[in-house]
Amino acid sequence: MRRMEKAGLVGFGLVAGVALSLHFAALADKETLVSPLPIEELRAFTEVFGHIKNSYVEPVSDQKLFTEAINGMLNGLDPHSAYLDADAFKDLQVGTQGEFGGLGIEVGMEDGLVKVISPIEDTPAYLAGVKSGDLILKLDDALVKGMSLNDAVKRMRGKPGSKIVLTILRKNELKPLTITVVRAVIKVQSVKAKLAEPGYGFVRITQFQEHTGENLATALDKLVKENKGALSGLVLDLRNDPGGLLDGAVAVSAAFLAKDALVVYTEGRTEDAKMRLTASPEYYLRGSNKNDYIKNIPASIKSVPLVVLVNGGSASASEIVAGALQDHKRGVIMGTQTFGKGSVQTVLPLGNSTAIKLTTARYYTPGGRSIQAKGIVPDILADDPSTSASDNLFRLREADLEKHLANDKQPEEKTPNTVKSDSSTKSNTEKLPPTEYGSKNDYQLNQAFNLLKGMKILQGK
């Protein structure tokens, strides 16, 4: 088995229904116990186990006690390690194929409440008005306080067509909001593309899935044909992309980088956790797929002027792509600082249809920068005018998560240039409608196209 197939996952939360998608490790043949078991600690564990069995107010099954003990061990490590019961493990596997049931929101925990990291585009939650930063107080009539994240996610799953009422706390709202969401089988379109105007293309990646690389190759080929020749500029939009499959990130990077260029490397305690992934077919083709779709991309794409849009909702696989393109000076990164999810989660099956998701390594850009708790700082800062200053201030990032893994390098970052939006002069109380990515009113996209056109003028001179 290739090392990459043993490596980890690149998502940053759980999804209500479930969109967290990473690589799965098949490590059943690997020796997992590398040191003697701590006798004193095990003695204390069995004492507590015995007290609960004998004296708790109600009978408790052995299965529940052991499951909660495993949950506690993993939840105490960092925000991304977790125990996956049979349902969660199955949903995780299904989610990598871009189709799953539920609401379509990426979630984490904050102060005992479920916090919305990002609603996924075109899903029931997104269309119902759920927003990044929302705190979910109640699921139907059940208070979230006291639930584990897995329990909350289970409640949000359900039969397609069934309804769930979310009671939400939202910044700047005086009272809780109630939003009814109709569950659905969610099919996420990973790649969206269009010729915005003659010579200039727009490609948006909403999530890194099993076929993202192939879909991107098809979209880029179609853009060049529709333009009847090489593009003058291209915008790659990774805003609010929560991540996904690692080989998808390598494939997207390979579309724009020279063959065999380093995309990302990882460092961990075990040999399996140490990888160097390059823009080579062995690192982005999955399973038995031998069709190198990157070869079919028009040659002009390797040199087309490129702007990559990112924001605080760009995480994990998105940050890998942005970091690789930035370090190789292949494109200009524009937007706001990314989420900072730079750790590897490996899914380890336990043999009883359950698994654990364990943090096993950190990701580093080709230039040696650690993404963890730092993220990618854009070359040019460009705020979204529909996002208020207070919204940006209180937006959740990896560094805000309790027990987050520290950045082991914290490199000095050059202060980026800033593009100020027209909203900087507007009153804090004045609210603009949320941006529809890719629309004519998309301020950041328009700034990206302005930059590309300016670059073309300079090249002409």
TrEMBL record:
SUPFAM superfamilies, per the entry: ClpP/crotonase, PDZ domain-like
Keywords: Hydrolase, Protease, Serine protease
Origin superkingdom: Bacteria
Biased composition regions of type Basic and acidic residues, renumbered to the chain: 404-415
Polar residues compositional bias, start-end: 416-427
InterPro entries cross-referenced by the UniProt entry: ClpP/crotonase-like_dom_sf (IPR029045), CtpA/B_N (IPR055210), PDZ (IPR001478), PDZ_sf (IPR036034), Peptidase_S41A (IPR004447), Tail-specific_protease (IPR005151)
GO molecular function, one term: serine-type peptidase activity
Location of the region described as Disordered in the Swiss-Prot/TrEMBL record: 404-441
Cited PROSITE patterns: PDZ
GO CC, one annotated term: outer membrane-bounded periplasmic space
Start and end residues of each PDZ domain: 89-157
Biological process, per Gene Ontology: proteolysis; signal transduction
NCBIfam families for this protein: prc (TIGR00225)
PANTHER family named among the record's database cross-references: CARBOXY-TERMINAL PROCESSING PROTEASE CTPA, TAIL-SPECIFIC PROTEASE
Family according to the record: Belongs to the peptidase S41A family.
Protein name: Carboxyl-terminal protease
Species of provenance: Gallionella capsiferriformans (strain ES-2) (Gallionella ferruginea capsiferriformans (strain ES-2))
Native organism taxonomy: Bacteria, Pseudomonadati, Pseudomonadota, Betaproteobacteria, Nitrosomonadales
